Amino acid sequence: MATEYRYQLAKRGKWVCPQCQHKTFVLYVDTDGQPLNESVGKCDRLDNCNYHYTPREYFADNGISAEQKPKKPTIRPIIRPRPSYIDTDIFKASLKRYENNRFVSFLHGLFDGDPCDVVRQLVSEYYIGTSSHWDGATVFWQVDRYGHIHGGKIMLYDAATGKRVKQPFNHITWVHSALKLDNFNLNQCLFGEHLLNVPAYSNYTVCIVESEKTAILGTGFAADAVWLACGGCQNLSKKVCQPLTGRRVVLMPDNGKYDDWAARGRELKGVCKDVFISDIMEQKAAEKGDDIGDLLIARHRAGTLDESIFDGTNFKRL
């Protein structure tokens, strides 16, 4: 006998897909026709979008156990507003004044002696922006594969050390907060996601790290991979990682985060072609919390940087 699932794809009606923004999205609905959530469904544009977020994944991502699921809905579920996007003019206005950008100054100092095109390419490829919110601050824009600008993270760095400025307070905020954009619904994507569309990178392995700075350093030192940043383990979800469908992915967690990332990585096996995780920071990190960027900088400055970090011996298939 066929299993009858409580939530099934609606027989009628199409919504705007939360990923590609086309009206080709079919919601999962309850037996009485009530949708679970406007993000839970399947896009009909399988070749061009491939978004599919199931009720089971939704419950897992939101920590809802089987016992907590209502036996029968008595009220219409809360429908979240559509994702907000940053205006293109705001984005373009940030792509200048690099002489005042402390993070870009750090990159110039780090790659001193290398062709100046290295830093120029990093700035261009990752759409590194400059913000006046704090003097010398940087904007890391989140641009998806469709060109939608999901948000911009503003951070302040020390131009000499490349470390974030955390005194007298942690200098980190978002563009929509700094500009006081009312009712802005932040819906994060992977930092660098737009690079997945570059034809020359179509067969490249995708390396995922936590911080935007580290993704940029990874490309600077090992340009034969696509380096993306998730901003935090919570963003290693099937929903956020849908653009990685069919790709070979290597997770590179910070020291002390291996187990958390491994658990998240196992959930991505149904999305990605192959998922690996590197334990090199568990072996080589000088301090807890160090990431692959710290190791790359240290070895670069010591003149001991080689390909052994990326030769696969530190990778474990999940």
Secondary structure blueprint with pairings:
Elements: E1 8-9, E2 25-29, E3 41-43, E4 52-53, H1 55-61, H2 88-93, H3 102-110, H4 117-125, E5 128-131, E6 137-143, E7 149-155, E8 172-174, H5 175-178, E9 205-209, H6 212-221, E10 225-229, E11 248-251, H7 258-266, E12 274-278, H8 280-284, H9 292-302, E13 315-317
Parallel strand pairs: 9-10, 9-11, 11-12
Antiparallel strand pairs: 1-2, 2-3, 3-4, 5-6, 6-7, 7-8, 12-13
Helix pairs in contact: 6-9
Low-confidence stretches: none
Number of helices: 9
Might you state the CATH topology name of the largest domain? Dna Topoisomerase Vi A Subunit, Chain: A, domain 2
How would you spell out the order of helices and strands? Answer: EEEEHHHHEEEEHEHEEHEHHE
CATH class of the largest domain: Alpha Beta
Percentage of helical residues?
10-25%
Q: Let me know the average pLDDT.
A: 88
How far the N terminus sits from the C terminus, by CA atoms, comes to 34 Å
The rounded Rg comes to 21 Å
Gross morphology: globular
CATH architecture verdict of the largest domain: 3-Layer(aba) Sandwich
How many beta strands in the DSSP annotation? 13
Number of domains: 3
**Biggest pleated sheet:** 5 strands, mixed
Which percent range describes the beta-strand content?
Answer: 15-25%
Strand order of the largest sheet: 10-9-11-12-13
Structural class: alpha+beta
Describe the structure.
There is one protein chain. The chain is globular, with a radius of gyration of 21 Å. β6 (137-143) and β7 form a beta hairpin. It has three domains: 1-81, no CATH class; 88-178, no CATH class; 197-317, Dna Topoisomerase Vi A Subunit, Chain: A, domain 2 (3-Layer(aba) Sandwich), CATH 3.40.1360. With 318 residues, it is α+β, with helices and mostly antiparallel strands. The protein has nine helices and 13 strands.
